[in-house]
Amino acid sequence: MITTHTFNPSIDITYNVEQLQIGKVHRPFQSIKNAGGKGINVSKVLVQLGADLRAHTYLGGENGQWLERKLNELSIPSIITHIKDSTRQCIAINDGNKQTEILEKGPEVSQEEQNHYLNQLRKNNNYIDTMVISGSTPELQENSSLHHIKEILESTANSYNIVDIRASELIKILQRKLPVHCIKPNEEEFKTLVNESNLNEKKIYTLMKAHSLFEGIDVFLTLGSKGAIVKINESIYKAEIPKIEVENPVGSGDATVAGIAFGRRKFYKENQKIIRLALSCGMSNTAQKATGHINLQQIQAFANNIKVELL
Ligand code: ADP
């Protein structure tokens, strides 16, 4: 079973306006309201792939109720810890030229609520073979996000743990040698992890082989339209993807994470197949208007056209 974690979900609202002008009244010609949070995006894609999934999350207040209904509608099997404080909403204002985002911080989660979340997870821990932790952590009473993630990572005995969180936080997790088995940084995040501003293929290869942060873990460095450089065990691959029509790249990284989680269970040690599936999930998300949506037929076609070579 694959378990996803969304500690800080949100209602994502996008307002499409003609032209954004600070201090002026705007009447959007289109408003879109979606279930958001990186772990929820991963879960949406996993459901479409047909994964055996449990999506763990904290939900509270009226926003939480809306999200709970939405998760049901999306057929995402969810394990919800209800909280007193209210789940956040995030607003994106798009004028066709630029996107302006307002991201609320999120609720405060009490100690009791954190314990409930962990107990729910521990109930099923024998069945979990893959775990995905994505996105930010809300305010935690008497706890740090680092310790909370540590508790989650250590709650399962043998799962393959994929962690996709802010690079500055991820560094601390990797330095402590917690049970993390895979990370999926994009180019900017990778630069922060290795503290380098200029990268080329040779440098990336050397860093993946030798940097202490990456010792013993799989690294999917995704490079947008340029594909990815991937380390699985000690093998390093370069994957080039075909050019496609881009509709909306938001959430492509999350779709890639879903592809890694699903692909690893499906293909086990066939690394090239895992890479092809993961990247084609990212590509298919990019080719759809709605975040967290993929097209299974398209994935097959994309996968056949991705060039993967062992470096
Ligand atoms: P993130 O969304 O985390 O910033 P990337 O932008 O690197 O991550 O995208 C993740 C994956 O999604 C890429 O490896 C690729 O497979 C796909 N993807 C992203 N942008 C594009 C694009 N413009 N064209 C084709 N595929 C894309």
Give a description of the structure.
- By secondary structure, the chain is α/β, with parallel strands linked by helices.
- The chain folds into two domains: 181 residues, Ribokinase (UDP-N-acetylmuramoyl-L-alanine:D-glutamate ligase); 128 residues, UDP-N-acetylmuramoyl-L-alanine:D-glutamate ligase (3-Layer(aba) Sandwich).
- It is 37% helix and 26% strand.
- It has ten helices and 16 strands.
- The strands form three sheets. The chain has a ten-stranded mixed β-sheet with strand order 5-4-1-9-11-12-13-14-15-16, sandwiched between helices.
- Bound molecules: adenosine-5'-diphosphate.
- Adenosine-5'-diphosphate (ADP) binds next to helix 8 and helix 9.
How many distinct folded domains?
Answer: 2
Distance between the termini: 32 Å
**Unreliable sequence segments:** none
Specify the biggest β-sheet: 10 strands, mixed
Per-chain topology:
Blueprint: E1 2-6, E2 10-16, E3 30-36, H1 38-49, E4 53-60, H2 61-73, E5 78-83, E6 88-94, E7 99-103, E8 108-109, H3 111-123, E9 130-134, E10 139-140, H4 145-153, E11 160-164, H5 167-175, E12 182-183, H6 187-194, H7 201-210, E13 218-222, E14 228-232, E15 235-240, H8 252-267, H9 271-286, H10 296-304, E16 307-310
Parallel strand pairs: 1-4, 1-9, 2-6, 4-5, 8-10, 9-11, 11-12, 12-13
Antiparallel strand pairs: 2-3, 6-7, 13-14, 14-15, 15-16
The structure holds adenosine-5'-diphosphate (ADP).
Adenosine-5'-diphosphate binds next to helix 8 and helix 9.
